[in-house]
Amino acid sequence: MTTSASFSWERFHQAPIVGIIRGLPVATIRSITQAYQEAGLSTLEVTMNTPGASKTISALRDEFPNLNIGAGTVCTIDELTIALDAGAQFIVTPVLVEGVIKHTVAQRVPVFPGAYSPTEIYQAWSWGASAVKIFPATHLGPQFVKDILAPLNEIKLLPTGGVSLENIRAFFTAGAIGVGMGSSLLDKQLIQNADFAGLKEHFTNVISEIRNFTAT
Predict the structure, then answer these.
(1) CA 207 to CA 169: how far, in whole Å?
(2) Catalytic positions, written as ranges
(3) What residues have CB less than 8 Å from 126, skipping those under 6 apart?
(4) Are the CB atoms for 177 and 16 separated by under 8 Å?
(5) At residue 184, does pLDDT exceed 70?
(6) Strands, E, within the chain: which ranges?
(7) pLDDT band at residue 4, thresholds of 50, 70 and 90?
(8) Rounded Cα distance, 91 and 199, in Å
């Protein structure tokens, strides 16, 4: 397993989307990841409640060395240890877990903790979050991002949950530095049909929506 390469912020800023893989078999994940890379995306999260998550993270690190491969749904120190041992290059949590966040920061690994309220968002940032995952962003929307950044403009926000091809541009216009996307990015029907060429085209369409907000 490759463990030496650290998270590439340069690649992330060129395509600031965190794709979220949950509950899929490893063979399918490999095909998704190939399409993901070919489309120009770079940052992929495998949730720890995916069967065989640690082995999948290790395999993706080996097979796709130019991608940022991380672990999501990390809620305990034990899960964090397993994820880091597997080679996860970044950590995502669904909620605020102080120990997980601070330990990840101490390891100099990027961490995107989930937070919902202004107080939670500020707390996550004060603990050293690389960016704060606004979760779930489904009902909050782009205006919430704009409202948070008015008084807390130094905080980097990564809305997740409810981000789609139709509204992704609005989140970036509001000031998000990136987004997390699960089912709206990893189209279930295309995956069930093993239409990975179609999935790659879908990825490309999503990227094109935020081209003006990406590093060149």
Answers:
(1) 10
(2) 45, 133
(3) none
(4) yes
(5) yes
(6) 17-21, 43-47, 68-72, 91-92, 111-112, 114-115, 133-134, 179-181
(7) low
(8) 25
Joined tokens for residue 188: 């279930």
Domain limits, the chain: 9-211
Closest C-alpha to 145, from 133, 157, 135: 157
Record the tokens describing residue 97, joined without a space: 């877990």
Report d(CA 37, CA 17) in Å as an integer.
12
In three-state secondary structure terms, 100 is helix
Burial level of 166, CB count in 10 A (0-12/13-18/19+)? exposed
Q: For the domain 9-211, what is the CATH superfamily, name and number?
A: Aldolase class I (3.20.20.70)
Give mean pLDDT, residues 171-197: 97
